[in-house]
Amino acid sequence: MRKTVGSITGKPGKGGMMSETISGGHLVAKALKAEGVDVIYTLCGGHIIDIYDGCVDEGIEVIDVRHEQVAAHAADGYARVTGKPGCAVVTAGPGTTDAVTGVANAFRAESPMLLIGGQGALSQHKMGSLQDLPHVDMMTPITKFAATVPSTERVADIVSMAFRECYHGAPGPSFLEIPRDVLDAKVPLEKARIPEPGRYRASTRQAGDPEAIERLADLLAHADKPCILLGSQVWTCRATDAAIDFVRALNVPAYMNGSGRGTLPPGDPHHFQLSRRYAFTEADLIIIVGTPFDFRMGYGKRLSPTATVVQIDLDYRTVGKNRDIDLGIVGDAGLVLAAAAQAASGRVENAAARRKEWLEELRAVETKAYDKRLPRQLSDASPIDPYRLVHEINEFLTEDTIYIGDGGDIVTFSGQVVQPKSPGHWMDPGPLGTLGVGMAFAMAAKQARRDKEVLCLFGDGAFSLTGWDFETMVRFDLPFIGVIGNNSSMNQIRYGQAVKYGEDRARVGNTLGDIRYGEFAKLLGGHGEEVRDPAEIRPALERARESGKPSLINVWVDPEVYAPGTMNQTMYK
User: Which segments constitute the Thiamine pyrophosphate enzyme central domain (predicted)?
Assistant: First the structure.
């Protein structure tokens, strides 16, 4: 005699009393629920289906995609949008290897997510079971934690352990493989450790060394030409308010990159974008928040050698890497900036006032750069100038539009022009430079924030990598506005080849077919359009918004025009 109530099965124990049992898959679901996860992204496989059964009982949505890379990217995107860890569940072997790119991207982007991979049964260990691979060995270098779950009793316990590790220092991904027999087996409920929500993980917010913060306050009091770069950790730490209070109270010009874009709204007197190189050359105090000295920063060489440089980061290993600094503070961006502003209050009134000329100097540089580029942003040329396309997108965005960039050359254009109107409304791959994140990020953003509009700009090469999951967007009714800057090329690479090997070898391995992606969208049940006239870009965007469907606007841009970043080959310097 047995009876089942939800995920728990009862069977007679000693003395005829009912003993409750629970399966490994249901323990996974309970652990996910305890962490606040309300959706998993997955591609099905026989190793993992008991997790689905558990998710149904726990009220966790299951979104099944067409490629495991998309599942992992979506978990990454979910974490960025919600501030909660994302979760992807894939089968063993090729299912797990397909997800490696998504995990690696989250690792470099400091995004907290858990990838759960299937594995052959423990009883078949080293026997050559179906899809058996050394997953943990492969995942260890690109995760903060990777382990095999050894027994059903430990399933929920180790899931919670993986989530803890996601938040050790700077956030990042964890990986667990769970053998099939561990997932399917049932154990007495009282023998399974099931962590309670909010009681198995401590706060990881660090306020920074008080003496270092006092020193930063003193530097601010004496600086005539300070500037601050607000990087992705400003959004990761949800430090927007503290960052805004800091720059306004101390009258410091602010530049933003990565997920830090949108911290200040366009038009704010402390919001700067086009004068960053000038500021980094002329400033006497440069504060770098939540951004490593990697290729995007010229490994720190773009900062004035005479400026005082302060670096604030969640990870002590990042501070002072590649470039010497004058002051390093390890801690939560919001807590550190708030403490520094408070410590500096009363000391900087005169300094803040005298910085008016510095802000005016930067604004003049900013205005000159904008005016120089404006004719191209308004160009009526055909084929369409990419600057015109990204200008139209920028004008189209609202305060509730999450903007996603997925591509090479076309997204480099957008980085100069597109300004999100609100915090947390910019998404890009991050420092790994992964193409193909766009569809997954749009999926996660719309699923997590159905009140938001989602617009994704793709390069045609980037879209091709994961574009079939447009059908997943249709299937789950996740409307978004997709725009493809189509030049039938991998133009960022093509330019470098032309310079290095000559025009006669410029198109080796980088030229794509002329694909009508608007028709592709219609084929899969969405809204699609082809645009060749720049005057039709804005009307097409409006029609996509009004359609209420997943959409693709295929905009044919000039293949002979390259972004300045591409021509400078800054990604390789």
Answer: 213-339
Q: Tell me the pLDDT band of 336, cut-offs 50, 70 and 90.
A: very high
The three-state secondary structure class of 9 is strand
2 pLDDT more than 80: no
Reported as a pLDDT band with limits 50, 70 and 90, residue 4 is: very low
Per DSSP, the residues of 446-499 read: HHH-TTSEEEEEEEHHHHHHHGGGHHHHHHTT---EEEEEE-SB-HHHHHHHHH
Residues 533 and 568: their CA atoms lie apart, in Å, by: 29
Structure tokens at 153: 């009793």
**3-state SS class at 407:** coil
| CA nearest neighbour of 130 among 100, 94, 97 | 94
Q: Which amino acid is at 386?
A: P
* The residue type at 252: V
pTM of the model: 0.93
383 upstream amide cis, omega within 30 of 0: yes
Residue 520 has pLDDT above 70, yes or no: yes
In DSSP notation, 313-379 reads ES-TTTTTSSS--SEEEES-HHHHHHHHHHHHTTT-HHHHHHTHHHHHHHHHHHHHHHHHHHHHHT-
Helix then strand then coil, % of the chain, to nearest 5 = 45, 20, 35
Give the pair of three-digit tokens for residue 22.
């629970």
Concatenated DSSP letters for 275-302? THHHHHHH-SEEEEES--SSGGGGGGTT
Q: What is the mean pLDDT of residues 155-162?
A: 96
Give me the torsion for CA of 95, 98, 104, 105, rounded to 10°: -120
DSSP calls for 492-505: HHHHHHHHHH-GGG
Strand order in the sheet with 226-230: 254-256, 226-230, 285-289, 308-313, 327-330
- Tokens for 401? 């539009």
DSSP label at residue 571: G
DSSP 8-state class, residue 42: E
pLDDT tens-digit readout, 261-275: 999 999 999 999 999
Count the Cβ atoms, other than its own, within 10 Å of residue 518: 23
